């Protein structure tokens, strides 16, 4: 049986978050969803098309939840840690974009033994 984790900070949570995103396809889906979220936000504001902002949750959560339920076969951390999870989405996006993700994944798996 899985023991319940408790996190006191984002930096403590992020390695755990990465272990819940071990599958490459799941990470790609998160990356696409986060990229679309950023694009919708910038486009909606710059072009004053504020209705686009309503698509942000659909794009962000749609890609991520599909990845968790259908590919990774785990429950999204959003349900228990909504703010840490949201922030971690963008940290992971940055780590993928800057090619740091493999090192961060190795560190996270070493820490949590997954």
Q: Explain this structure to me?
A:
- With 114 residues, the chain is mainly alpha-helical.
- The chain has one domain.
- It has five helices and no strands.
- α1 (10-19) crosses α5, α2 (24-46) runs antiparallel to α3 and α2 (24-46) packs across α4 (82-97).
How is this structure best summarized?
68% of the residues lie in helices and 0% in strands. It has 5 helices and no strands.
| Total number of domains | 1
From the alpha carbons, calculate the radius of gyration and give it in angstroms.
15 Å
Strand % is under 5%
Q: Spans of 5+ residues with little confidence (pLDDT < 50)?
A: none
Q: Roughly how much helix do the residues carry, as a percent range? A: 55-70%
Structural category is mainly alpha
Q: How many H/I helices?
A: 5
Q: Tell me the number of strands.
A: 0
H/E topology pattern: HHHHH
Mean pLDDT: 92
Main sheet record: none
Broad shape: elongated
Report how far apart the termini are.
14 Å
What key phrases describe this protein's structure?
elongated; mainly alpha; single chain; 114 residues; 5 helices; 68% helix
Secondary-structure blueprint:
Blueprint: H1 10-19, H2 24-46, H3 56-72, H4 82-97, H5 101-112
Helix pairs in contact: 1-4, 1-5, 2-3, 2-4
């Amino acid at each position: 049986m899985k023991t319940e984790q408790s996190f006191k900070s984002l930096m403590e949570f992020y390695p755990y978050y990465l272990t819940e995103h071990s599958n490459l396809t799941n990470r790609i889906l998160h990356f696409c969803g986060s990229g679309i979220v950023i694009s919708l936000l910038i486009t909606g504001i710059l072009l004053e098309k504020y209705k686009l902002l309503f698509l942000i949750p659909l794009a962000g959560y749609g890609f991520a939840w599909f990845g968790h339920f259908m590919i990774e076969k785990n429950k999204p951390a959003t349900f228990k840690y909504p703010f840490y999870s949201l922030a971690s989405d963008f940290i992971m996006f940055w780590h993928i974009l800057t090619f740091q993700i493999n090192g961060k994944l190795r560190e996270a798996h070493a820490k949590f033994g997954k």
